[in-house]
Amino acid sequence: MDKHYKLVILGAGPGGYVAAIRAAQLGFSVCLVEADQLGGVCLNWGCIPTKTLLRTAHLFRAFNNAGSLGINAENIRLDFGRAQQRKTAVVTQLRKGIESILKKRGVDIVIGRGRLGSERSVLVNDQTIG
After folding, report:
1. Are 6 and 129 in contact (CB under 8 A)?
2. Nearest CA-CA partner of 86 in 105, 110, 59
3. What is the pLDDT of residues 112-123, one digit of tens each?
4. How many CA atoms lie within 13 A of 42 on its CB side?
């Protein structure tokens, strides 16, 4: 890559993308390198998907116990496929939001596995970013 950056950040999890946004706000030219998906493990496979599915589970349990509150709710069934679709939609929406903010701030996003190349460069997909 021919562009020179003031800051190259490895990893687009919560620490990485927030640092990239703040650095761009301060006027730095920023490149954010991510091996997989923006948002990192928390957004894509950990915290957010888990909390989304837990919300479904809590509602399911509440509906099944509604009789004790005088609410007749019968034949409550869990459609796990729809629960998974909702989880995926939530994750996708949040990921797109992060991407939009990064682009609006002028942060360049590079998908690939980054590693330190030298004192002032990062290697990503066999290309040097510095």
Report:
1. no
2. 59
3. 999 998 888 899
4. 9
